[in-house]
Specification:
Layout: H1 4-8, H2 25-36, H3 68-74, E1 81-83, H4 87-101, H5 104-114, H6 137-153, H7 156-173, H8 192-198, H9 206-224, H10 227-245, H11 249-255, H12 263-274, H13 277-284, H14 289-296, H15 307-324, H16 327-343, H17 374-390, H18 395-409, H19 458-466, E2 475-477, E3 481-484, E4 490-494, E5 499-504, E6 512-530, E7 539-542, E8 545-547, E9 555-564, E10 568-572, E11 577-582, E12 585-593, E13 596-603, E14 619-620, E15 627-631, E16 634-640, E17 648-650, E18 652-654
Parallel strand pairs: 3-6
Antiparallel strand pairs: 1-4, 2-3, 4-5, 5-6, 6-9, 6-10, 7-8, 7-10, 11-12, 12-13, 12-18, 13-16, 13-17, 14-15, 15-16
Helix pairs in contact: 2-7, 5-7, 6-7, 6-9, 6-19, 7-10, 9-10, 9-12, 10-13, 12-13, 12-15, 14-16, 15-16, 15-17, 17-18
Length: 656
């Protein structure tokens, strides 16, 4: 991406302008109104570009709506946390490189054509190709990823690029009437897709796209301060309210059989921001009774459900519970999380095989190179984060989060790619191999995770967000002080307590972390998670002196004192090698060192049968997180599954 001053100076790179930018909010709205000849931004139902009905409650003035009501006080703004040197920051750096590289006009091409304009940009391939029903979804993810990157890193180019995309989309939204669409409509495909959906002949998942645009606008508004984005979100939310408000309950339930992503979550977030009751009512219309009612009753009926279609519905229920207090929604969320974490999660923390849930406990019987779709874990971590804010004393929630984060999400990116390409599945079959989804791209290069313009799957898209928001759950807070949830090199500027905390760690290569107060003075508790995997009592030193520790695995090591600049807390959390049996076949086991799942490195050996491991042979080999073992009477090296790239690997072993 060219420097910001060039971008602001008149599209020197050749961006296809719809409305020049930057403009003031008032000037932008005037331009949109003049171009469209009709209302575009604001209340689509009322047809008035600026008029809003009185709020039903006080709109949100602080916090980040996707963090939920508990997150207002429990979450740290991502702008207050910076990643320090380590693998998470390296992933973030590669991801940022791609976000700033990708040409927004190529992604906007289908939008422009849909609204009767021309575009000189080349069409994209993959799932953004002009003939694909879900073209446009990556643009929504791009808005979110750019907003997260700006908020977390302060990269001005990410801010500028996000604003460009917002203004182009909002200007196109302003042309809805001229294009023959209803006011407020925004998509890269015609509104007739929704006629087909309502008539029972659905395209792929049109409301899924609406979710991505709405979520992207909300992120651009709340994380990047773009008021044009919230006006566009309001207009789009009004369109959803109008479109769904015409349908009977039974008709809407039939519509919900087609994937709609987390649209009700985004509508609930829009309600939280604006106080407009209509968005909350619209969100509740998306309650899919056939799927969600069994969860509310505590019944595991997940077998056969498409996993990534299901998890966003549950996230939406949790947000609806927070805003309405309706216990049904709460039961859906807590029961679902328990079912998935206990009975549907693989060793690496992911779920799904061939993108679907299967019968409870089916792990050894459901191994393929299509397990653990990364979108599923992206959404499960969102759900876990929201639950954590309500029960911060529960270490099992963060243990689950850590397992998926360190094994799957950190390892979904190709470190050999300058643009940080992300895989679709984390395969767990014998001879698994990280690659682009060959079931969708059978002619693709199996040694490539993705491409710049010819993949654009949903997992590439959620990967852009995942790699941009690693900082968001490392810490949380309550009235007593700070929780150190995750062991990731980072710096926290705690504005409400006027202290700065720096965490330096080589975890998991070394089982310890060092927390230093680098600025400020505060009377508070610092609580460090003692994970369930901890092999023995943790050891702690404060300013070089040992301190007594009563916390054990599954608790929190708390130090409550007047903290001041120069104070250092060092914590060691002993780790051990374990073999974890699959619930459906205890002779099939995975190996882990603490939370880190180990994989056998098999290079170009594409074996199709599960190796037989000699359990007593598993031992450290000297290097950090490097182990050796005997499998099928041969020596095999084991390394963290997140570090298995461009070679065949094995996670599950026969042990008897």
């Amino acid at each position: 991406m060219r420097p910001a001053e060039t971008l602001l100076g008149g599209f020197a790179r050749g961006y296809d302008p719809v409305v020049p930018w930057p403009l003031s909010r008032r000037a932008f709205l005037a331009a949109v109104g003049a171009a469209a000849g009709a209302a575009a931004v604001g209340s689509a139902a009322a047809g008035d570009a600026l008029q809003l009905t009185p709020p039903a409650r006080v709109p949100m003035t602080t916090g980040y709506a996707p963090d939920g009501t508990a997150g207002v006080t429990a979450a740290f703004p991502v702008s207050q946390v910076r990643l320090l040197s380590g693998p998470f920051r390296e992933n973030q750096r590669r991801n940022t490189s791609y976000l700033l590289f990708v040409d927004p006009d190529r992604l906007l091409r289908s939008f422009r054509l849909n609204y009767g304009l021309t575009s000189t940009a080349r069409p994209c391939g993959g799932w953004e190709a002009p003939h694909i029903d879900i073209r446009g979804h990556n643009t929504g993810h791009l808005m979110s990823a750019l907003a997260l990157t700006w908020a977390n890193t302060g990269d001005r180019a990410a801010l500028d690029k996000g604003r460009y995309v917002v203004r182009q989309l909002a200007a196109l939204q302003g042309r809805a009437a001229a294009a023959g669409f209803s006011p407020g409509y925004l998509s890269a495909f015609p509104e007739s897709y929704f006629d087909r959906l309502e008539a029972g002949h659905p395209p792929w998942s049109p409301y899924y796209m609406i979710h991505k645009y709405l979520a992207g606008f909300i992120d651009q508004y709340q994380l990047a301060g773009d008021e044009v984005a919230i006006e566009a979100a309001i207009s789009l939310g009004d369109w959803v309210d109008w479109r769904t408000g015409r349908l009977t309950y039974d008709h809407m339930q039939r519509v919900l059989e087609t994937e709609y992503g987390g649209l009700p979550e985004a509508l609930t977030n829009l309600y939280t921001i604006t106080g407009q009751q209509r968005y909350l009512l619209a969100a509740e219309r998306f309650y899919h009774a056939r799927v969600l009612d069994p969860m509310a009753r505590g019944q595991d009926k997940l077998d056969g459900l498409h996993a990534n279609t299901t998890v966003p519905k549950v996230i939406s229920c949790l947000r609806l519970w927070e805003e309405t207090g309706t216990d049904l929604y709460h039961r859906v969320a807590v029961n679902f999380w328990r079912m998935v974490a206990r009975d549907h999660t693989y060793a690496v923390g992911g779920a799904s095989n061939y993108e679907h849930f299967h019968r409870p406990g089916a792990i050894a019987g459901q191994l393929s190179n299509y397990t653990c779709e990364n979108c599923v874990s992206y959404n499960m971590l969102k759900l876990t984060r929201l639950l954590h804010f309500h029960q911060q004393d529960r270490t099992d929630l963060v243990d689950y989060y850590e397992r998926a984060l360190f094994n799957q999400m950190l390892g979904e990116q190709d470190p050999d790619s300058a643009h940080g390409f992300n895989i679709y599945y984390t395969g767990l079959s014998p001879g698994a191999f990280k690659q682009q989804p060959m079931n969708y791209f059978p002619r693709g290069n199996p040694d490539v995770y993705a491409t710049d313009y010819n993949t654009f799957t949903c997992d590439n898209a959620t990967g852009m967000e995942t790699q941009a928001k690693f900082a968001d759950t490392i810490y949380s807070r309550d009235e007593r002080g700070i929780f150190v949830n995750l062991f990731v090199p980072s710096e926290l500027t705690c504005a409400d307590r006027a202290v700065t905390l720096r965490q330096t760690t080589r975890f998991p290569d070394e089982p310890s972390t060092r927390i230093e107060i680098t600025a400020g003075l505060a009377l508070m508790a610092i609580r460090v998670r003692v994970p369930a995997w901890t092999a023995s009592a943790p050891v702690a030193r404060l300013n070089g002196q040992p301190i007594p520790v009563t916390a054990r695995a599954g608790g929190w090591l708390a130090v409550d004192r007047l903290w001041q600049r120069g104070d250092v807390l060092e914590v060691t959390l002993p780790m051990r090698l374990t073999l974890e049996p699959a619930p459906d076949d205890r002779t099939v086991q995975s190996a882990a060192y603490g939370p880190v799942v180990l994989s056998g490195a098999y290079g170009r050996d594409n074996r199709t049968t599960m190796p037989r491991l000699k359990p007593g042979s598993l031992a450290a080999e000297g290097g950090p997180l490097t182990f050796g073992a005997k499998a099928d009477s041969q020596d095999v090296r084991l390394l963290p599954v997140a570090r298995a790239q461009h070679q065949h690997y094995n996670v599950y072993w026969k042990t008897a």
